[in-house]
Write a structure and sequence with these properties.
binds NADP nicotinamide-adenine-dinucleotide phosphate, 40% helix, Rossmann fold, 8 helices, 7-stranded parallel beta sheet
């Protein structure tokens, strides 16, 4: 059985300092799951590059990391809907100049778009969702590959969803974008396997208490939904040394059944 089939990031308990010395970039680091993972990475010793579009939110995460005694993070404002080639190049240059390498890259930023039948799906919304969730992640990965290759042990993690594995009516561009993310993960993993120290995997966070979840399920009792802080362990496992040698896989952040059942998770 391949290593990626045996590996389960949910069972990993990160040791203190497990990510010490690692440089990890996270998109959508200002809120929701991205914020929680950024704080957890820093708490385990990583230097975090906080990528996002709302600088105020990134500043708040930066301050929380400092207050928690973590290594100083850096803020990299980037609007994935509007960014052009120059913005991506600037970010990649800044990472290379400051650190000389990148050890982890979590593509977490995402947008839901609208829940509507394909027959009536708004075309500009479709384009925006596909752009932010897929094309921007591809473009960012592409410019950062040299920095990832410069690491002795690098990990790229894309964020998937239950609806990116089995289609679901009315989830439109969001579902299709997550299928594309799964495909991008597989293609890139194969391309980098055996010719680099860069592994590439996908993670499905499962239902998690964030703004996106509220947007998708406005009538839900949000208190019943797990907090982002409760799922960070699986992210640390995939971003850090625990997953060395694991590539091309697609993993769950929460236990099967309750937390990420197909009936209610996004
Ligand atoms: N929550 C769930 O139940 C669930 C389930 C399955 C998968 N996911 C996936 O998990 C990931 C994180 O979602 P979440 O639940 O934490 O949602 P969230 O709280 O809405 O956070 C989304 C993050 O993405 C950022 N973002 C959105 N558009 C952006 C843009 N154009 N440029 C840069 N950053 C942008 C947001 O920045 P701002 O704060 O500045 O808007 C925010 O930081 C997403 O990929 C989502 O699809 C979530």
């Amino acid at each position: 059985m391949a290593l990626s089939e045996r590996f389960d990031p949910r069972t990993h308990r990160a040791a203190p300092g497990e990510l010490a010395g690692r440089v990890i970039a996270i998109t959508g680091a200002g809120d929701g799951i991205g914020r929680a993972v950024a704080l957890a990475c820093a708490a385990h010793g990583a230097q975090v590059v906080l990528i996002g579009r709302t600088v105020k939110k990134l500043e708040s995460v930066h301050a929380a990391i400092l207050a928690g005694g973590g290594p100083e993070a850096v803020i990299a404002p980037l609007d994935l809907e509007k960014a052009v080639a120059h913005d991506y190049d600037q970010l990649a240059d800044a990472v290379s100049e400051r650190y000389g390498r990148l050890d982890g890259l979590l593509h977490n930023a995402g947008v839901l778009g609208t829940l509507s039948p394909i027959e009536h799906y708004d075309v500009p919304t479709w384009c925006k969702v596909m752009h932010v969730n897929v094309t921007a992640a591809f473009a960012l990965t592409q410019v950062l590959i040299p920095a990832l290759r410069a690491s002795a042990d690098a990990s790229v993690v894309f964020t998937s969803s239950s609806v990116g594995r089995v289609g679901r009516a009315y989830w439109g561009a969001y579902a299709v974008s997550k299928f594309a993310v799964e495909g991008l993960t597989q293609v890139l993993a194969q391309e980098l396997e055996n010719v680099s120290h860069v592994r590439v995997n996908a993670i499905n966070p499962g239902r998690t208490r964030t703004l996106m979840r509220r947007q998708a399920y406005p009538a839900e009792e949000i208190e019943t939904v797990p907090l982002p802080e409760s799922i960070t362990g699986a992210y640390l496992a995939l971003l850090g040394p625990a997953s060395r040698g694991v590539t091309g896989g697609s993993f769950e952040a929460q236990p099967a059944g309750g937390a990420s059942s197909a009936a209610s998770s996004s």
